[in-house]
Amino acid sequence: MAGIGSGPWGYYTVNGVNYKNISVVTTSSAGSAWAFAETDVVPTNRAVTTGWISANARLFDASGNLVLESGFQTNPGTIRANGVWDVFSPYRNATGSFRSWGVSKAWNGATYIAYYASQSSLLSTGT
Q1: Residue 45 burial (CB count, 10 A)
Q2: Separation of alpha carbons 92 and 59, rounded Å
Q3: For residue range 72-117, what is the model confidence (pLDDT) as tens digits?
Q4: pLDDT for position 86
Q5: For the residues 11-20, what does the mean pLDDT come to?
Q6: Are strands 97-100 and 85-88 parallel, antiparallel or unpaired?
Q7: Which of 18, 32, 79, 117 could form an SS bridge with 28, CB 3.0 to 4.6 Å?
Q8: What is the spatial distance between Cα 88 and Cα 73, in angstroms, rounded to a whole number?
Q9: pLDDT band for position 29 (50/70/90)?
Q10: pLDDT in tens, 59-74
């Protein structure tokens, strides 16, 4: 089934900031075959400054193999409370079924703490 699928939101707190993250996969409809992953991170209780959030959007096939990822990308500017930092993988041009399983990191004042988002649903391309 083509379209957009996600996992449930995940919640965590680092350095007094409450965050939520989610994995999203988007796949093509009939007549084409592509997919990409997205990881969204939201600071919910306050704004965060440059460099406080990093995220990696990762696309997996139905067998659990990592096929594409964005690499960790860090927010280049302030994100207001309930604003979204979203990161996208490259497109995978192929038929098949894919899911997203992203990772986000939050700055605790000394280092980044990683939190895996829940896996998205599995969606097929070109159907």
Answers
A1: 11
A2: 8
A3: 999 999 999 999 999 999 999 988 999 999 999 999 999 999 999 9
A4: 97
A5: 98
A6: unpaired
A7: 32
A8: 10
A9: confident
A10: 999 999 999 999 999 9
Domain extent listing, the chain: 3-120
**CA–CA distances in Å: residue 120 to residues 7, 9, 14, 109:** 4, 10, 24, 30
Which pair of tokens denotes residue 47?
A: 């704004």
Instruction: Return the amino acid letter for 86.
Output: D
Count Cα atoms within 13 angstroms, Cβ side, for 109: 5
How many angstroms separate the Cα of 100 from the Cα of each of 27, 37, 61, 68, 110?
11, 5, 9, 10, 29
How far apart are alpha carbons 16 and 107 in whole angstroms?
10
3-state secondary structure 4-61: EEECCCEEEEECCEEEEEEEEEEECCCCCCCEEEEEEEEECCCCECCCCEEEECEEEE
Q: Class of the 3-120 domain?
A: mainly beta
Q: Using DSSP bridges, classify how beta strands 85-88 and 35-43 pair: parallel, antiparallel or unpaired.
A: antiparallel
* CB neighbours of residue 93 within 10 Å: 11
